[in-house]
Fold this protein.
Amino acid sequence: MSKPRTLTTPPTNRLLAAMPKDEYREMLPGLEPFPLIFGDLIYKPGALVRHVYFPTSGIISLLADVDDGGMLEVGIVGREGMAGMPVFMGVKTSPNRAMVQGAGSALRMKATTLTSMANNGSSLPRLLRRYSYSLWAQLSQSSVCSLYHPIEARLARWLLMTRDRMEANEFRITQEFLSSMLGVRREGVNKAAGNLQQQDLISYSRGMVTILKPAGLAAVACKCYRIIKKEYGREL
């Protein structure tokens, strides 16, 4: 079966868009459209990584398990990057869970195909190395943020990071999911979200969050947001 014509259009994923056009055309047979459905699990900890994902819209969260059976978000992958970086580093399994946080779409590639491409002299390895630095910076900063900053500041950071990657002021999120992302109880999330609503920075209704004043929300967010945003905007 031939690939859909949509794959011949310029890619909206920044990693793929940074590749020379001839190299991207050579990649096309190995790429297939894949829907990112809210809440779907992409990887499990310790499980074999069979595919890598280049989001073209939507967001994939990287989650670490914690002792009480819960989860904590340690990173976000949007259309700036790729989910499945362990494959590029020569590891066949995932250390984290990867779950769709924002619905959208991705281009999927077999892990074995990516490994072959990484060894064929293309520009992809260079781009992935630069992206891995940006992702590492995000993971380390998010870990510090989770330990030291108050819930309200972390929530503001998380909402802004999601806004940047979704490129939208409105997106779907449940309190239960947000509690997992921040690694806190729902009561803490409710209180922090209520404070942001009282300041008219956001509105929340029926599982939909709307950011009303991005600049005001940025003033509430901890400086981790600005640090991560700087790396997010780094040229590949």
